[in-house]
# Entry
Amino acid sequence: MKITHPASVRYGSLVVPLAAQRQVDAALAYLARDPVERRLIERVERSPVRHRIEIVHHHDDAYRPWSHAIRWDPHSAMRTTGGGRQSPALGLAHELDHAAAHARDLVRLQSRGDPAYDDAEERRVITGTERHAARTLHESERRDHRGACYRVADPTQV
Ligand SMILES: [Zn+2]
# Structure
């Protein structure tokens, strides 16, 4: 079976599906209001590794280190344990941070369990860039690696 990739555009080394460019642009512009996120986006765009954003539809955001795929649902917002809300854009930011990590560090931190955040890599991302962006963008902070997903029309909506 021949596998074809849909038409895409490239932001440096970040490959974005053309069909989702508007949503990715909206999310990145929103996130870039936070200086920490702005630096993170630049790191991914300038990375020696080519990452690809893949659009998913079932609240199944993830980073796949073996294929360098950032899987993102632009309609998936999240209700946090404390009843707060996070936008789909913040979900993209979370996966971008996993993507920006060196593969060696990612594996090492993921293998280290953490009672509140499942593993040390989730703790690093959630208490680091995610929390910083949440404060800047007036979204909710997480104190764990949980959340209940719900649908929104636009990536910057909560
Ligand atoms: Zn994560």
The radius of gyration is 15 Å.
